[in-house]
Amino acid sequence: MEIEEEPQQVLPEQPVHSQELVQSTSLQHTPPVDPRAEHPFIYSTETEIPSLSAPKELTPVGDRRRDRRRHSSNVQRTPTGDTGGHSPSTHRTSGGNTREQSSSLQLSHPVDHILSVDRITPPLQRQDRVRRAGWQQRTPYTDPCRPKRPRIRPQPAHVWAPHALIDPDHLAAYQAYKRNSTGELRDVDLLEPVGVPWFHRFQTNTMELEDTHMDAYLHILRKRQRYYSTVYGPRINIQDSQFYSWLLNDWERLMGSGADKPRRSWSMFKHQWSAEELAVVRGLVPVGTKPWNEVDVVLIPCNLGRTHWALASVDLTTGSIYLMDPFRQEVPFRHRKMQLACLRYFLPSMLHALDFHGRRRRGDMTYTLQNKPFPLNIVSRDRVPQQDRGGNCGAHTLRLIEYLAANRDTFDWSENEMGTIREKMAVEVFCNSKDWTSS
Q: What whole-number distance in Å separates Cα of residue 359 and Cα of residue 86?
């Protein structure tokens, strides 16, 4: 006799709560992921997951810190030797009883206290506050009458000998590198690595120097000025070759090409400069320079007409520009005035934007900035060595910067020595570089 089984009633599916899902993990093959189980130290089992789109009432900083201390005293971590804080472990309560806890840990304070840290102090405001505090501590702009005491560094033995011969060991290594057929690249503190053709152009008389050649050697001069302050003038700034090109491009964009004075609508002391542009005057770029309120002279190499190198020495104590040109031919003054108009008008405007006169240290003879351009003075060709052939203007300009950085007013080299001088500069850049593959 067969017994008929009573049909079972099919009940409608009931929604299962998240706690039931966590408890029934042993009965399911692929349980749904609960964010509370993934982050047990943030979410609590008795509170709902907060919505970031609708922030709740903020908690004062003092209450948040007090709750954090209370939480650290109530909750204890697992002892050494357990599997970790995220796995189930045995915790001891204040009454001495022990109980098993799951990975979702009970917190003694609401979740909002932890999630509202970024809302109380937004990242942008926090970075701005840290930047202002660091700026007051790291720069002498806070109190010009009390400049920061310079850090005393041991001065290694260094002798300024511009006419010394090239070190035989360094010359042998340089020549072996040029004979190398693999053509490995070298890191000379530039954005891009350089190879053998770059060094060959550096030491050849008939070839003009590019911006990269100028910046590589100027970087070495700034290093010497930093580490050998007893030999090189500490109150002299050496700018890179891009500074004049950047000012010239802005001048032509605002005033037009070939203008020797600005438009009437342009106001010198009301021009708005960006933070990137004023970073040069603040001594942030290039590496190795100082804020202009701490120096007296600024040496600026200028690529006049984008074909000829000359040196503009800016005296900040008198507000004057002195042009040293190794060109063998005489150039009309109005032509030089047009080529250096970007320096004559932009430099006073940039100094005024940083309150240059008010930030100079007490006791310095400071030129009072006026609403007029810096005067231009052409140094006599009898005092500046002249080139006899094209291509050596860049090397002459680097030689002038090297002498002026060492506080030398007389220049005692000639065009006949430029072959040895350019080779010596190339060897110095090579010895101060390293293999690009190992950098």
A: 57
State how far Cα 194 lies from the chain centre: 22
Q: What is the pTM of this model?
A: 0.65
Is the CA virtual torsion 202, 203, 207, 209 positive or negative? positive
For residue 308, count other CB atoms closer than 10 A to its CB: 19
| Structure-derived torsion over alpha carbons of residues 286, 287, 288, 294, reported in degrees to the nearest 10 | 50
Is there a cis peptide before residue 193, judged by omega within 30 degrees of 0? no
Q: What is d(CA 100, CA 103) in angstroms, rounded to the nearest whole number?
A: 10
Would you tell me how many other CB atoms lie within 10 Å of the CB of residue 411? Answer: 18
Q: If you ran DSSP here, which 8-state letter would residue 385 be given?
A: -
The H-assigned helical ranges of 256-392 are 275-278, 333-339, 341-353, 356-359
Q: For residue 46, what are the contacts with CB-CB under 8 A and spacing of at least 6? A: 106
Q: Classify burial at 274, counting beta carbons within 10 Å of its beta carbon; exposed 0-12, middle 13-18, buried 19 or more.
A: exposed
Tens digits of per-residue pLDDT, 113-169? 443 434 444 555 555 555 555 444 444 444 444 444 455 455 556 788 898 999 999
Exposed/middle/buried for residue 14 (C-beta within 10 Å: 0-12, 13-18, 19+): exposed
Q: Which residues pair with 59 in a beta bridge?
A: none
